[in-house]
Amino acid sequence: SKIRKTQDVLTSGNSIQDELKNFKKITKASVVANSLTERLAYRFALTRKLDPNKLYVGVKGKYVNRVIIPFEDSRGMFYFQARQLTGFGMKYLNPSFAEHGVKASDILYPFNLEESYILVTEGPIDALSLQNININATSTQGSIFSQNHLKELSGKKIILAYDNDEAGDRGIQYARRLIKSKNLPEPYTVRPPQQFKDWNDFIIEASPIEVQAWVSETVTRMDFNYELSALLD
C-alpha cells in the first residue's frame, strides 16, 4: 500500500513496529494485573463494548498509560491511536510524520474493501464499534477528510458519519465540497441520534439491531433535497 511505501523509505526515526516494544496486549490476565493501567485499559474496553483482545496498552515511552487502538493489516500494525486513561494530558495522541514517517491525512482505519459502501467516522473507536455490529466503517483520525482519503475510497458509496458537534458539522461539509470538486457522486450522511455525541456512545446504550436500523432509516443523500431541507430547518 501507499502507506507501507512511505514507511519503507524512512531513513530516520522509529517505525510503527518499533513502538510495539512499548505496548502490551490486553488479555484476560489484565483484569488482575499488578499494573493499574492494565486494569483500567481492560475496564475501558468492556465499558466501551470493545473486544479487549484487539487492543494494547502503553506500558512505557511516550504513550504510557494509554489504551492503544491498532491499525493492522496482514503485515501487522502500521498506525495507531493512543487514548489516555488517567485524565492527564491530551485525550488522543497519534503518531506524527516527524516520529514515524506517517501522516494522519494518509491513514484510514482498516475496513472491508469488498463492500460497496463505507461509513466514515472521526475516530477508530467509532469505526471499530460499527464494525463489531457488521457495519463497514473507517475513520479519518479527526474531522478532516483529505484528498488521500478520497483516493482510497473512490468508487464506494461514501457515507459521512462524523460526531454530533460543530467540528463534525464542519467536517461533513468540507468533505462534501471536496467530493463535489472532483465531480464524484454526491456523498451520503448519517449521524447518531442527537442525544449521543458519537457512534460508540450510541452503541454502548443500544442493541446492534437498533443501531443497524437507525443507520438504514436515517442515511441521507447530500443532494439538492438535502440542501433544501437544511435551509428549511
Short structural description:
This protein has 233 residues and is of the alpha/beta class.
Protein described:
This protein is of the alpha/beta class and 233 residues long. The protein has 10 helices and 10 strands. The protein has a 5-stranded antiparallel sheet. It has a 5-stranded mixed sheet with strand order 7-6-8-9-10.
Strand content: 15-25%
Number of helices: 10
Radius of gyration over all CA atoms, rounded: 18 Å
The major β-sheet equals: 5 strands, antiparallel
Shape: globular
| Strand order in the largest sheet | 1-2-3-4-5
How many beta-strand elements? 10
Residues in helix, %: 25-40%
What is the overall pLDDT average? Answer: 89
Distance between the termini: 43 Å
Name the structural class: alpha/beta
Task: Output the helix-strand order.
Answer: HHEHEEEEHEHEHEHEHHEH
Are there runs of 5+ residues with pLDDT below 50, and where?
Answer: 2-12
